[in-house]
């Protein structure tokens, strides 16, 4: 039986899901493996992480890379379609989710709207398709063959999460028959997808290089100026600080809501301006779907302009990968 692997490799986080397990979420960080000479046994999770071999190179992935690697790749300015880092992230989540007895795998994944062309689709398909042997530290080697791929515009996953159920069956024919705008707010990019009766509309879709990473970089500058926290190269720390609206300085917790608010407003203005350019007031759209890691922060701003925002049935950060899985079940699982 073919296993379906839903895979969402983002600039901030990589998410993956299969029909039988809990989702795997790791930071999209990859670095060279280092020799670790000492690991304490006092804290049980100390030393845990993902270390694996890709194309003959030993690599740390996710939290392990951030903690232990001398240099870490978290590309924020160029796409990584088909790169060693992308393959490492694929191997890391596949080795965590695909059962050892699985022989064949179908992968459902997406590309940003700006990168969704024949060249990038073929590059990604070549990387995914074929026989893979994953050598991961602390686990038996996993061998599997990817026999099928389904590559869609990233934001479409969230629409599939809305209109398909857990078996891939269509459950919202009204929304599926309508005209829907999707805004997918990621770390580096924000994707805008216009769909008419499930048909991708090219002229109403686009991608811009503005996302939560832009906000985090600005907040990082303010944190250094105000509190001496030099986190410009540690945006994951900044992300957590923004989520919590606080930082710790000399052991004291400091509220940074006032520092974050202007940057949120500025980013919202940029993102809404692009939506207006593509869709105007949205009066002809049945719904607008806001998804991605930045959607929770941006939702209050978007709702002022687009009151018909459609809430997602799952965590917006996981909506694309959930939709990929449901679309995969429909495509590869024989769901009518």
Topology of this structure?
Elements: E1 3-9, E2 13-17, E3 24-27, E4 30-32, E5 50-54, E6 57-61, H1 63-68, H2 84-97, E7 104-111, H3 118-128, E8 130-136, E9 142-153, H4 156-163, H5 173-176, E10 179-185, E11 190-196, E12 199-208, H6 212-227, H7 235-244, E13 246-249, E14 252-255, H8 257-279, E15 287-291, H9 295-305, H10 319-332
Parallel strand pairs: 1-7, 7-9, 10-15
Antiparallel strand pairs: 1-2, 2-3, 4-6, 5-6, 5-8, 8-9, 10-11, 11-12, 13-14
Q: Say which CATH homologous superfamily of the largest domain is assigned.
A: ATPase, nucleotide binding domain
Q: β content, as a range?
A: 25-35%
Number of helices: 10
Could you describe the largest sheet, including whether it forms a barrel?
9 strands, mixed
Give the proportion of residues in helices. Answer: 25-40%
- How far is it from the N-terminal to the C-terminal residue, by CA? 18 Å
Number of strands: 15
Give the tally of structural domains. 2
Query: What oligomeric assembly is this protein in?
Result: single chain
Average pLDDT confidence is 87
Q: Find the structural class using helix and strand composition.
A: alpha+beta
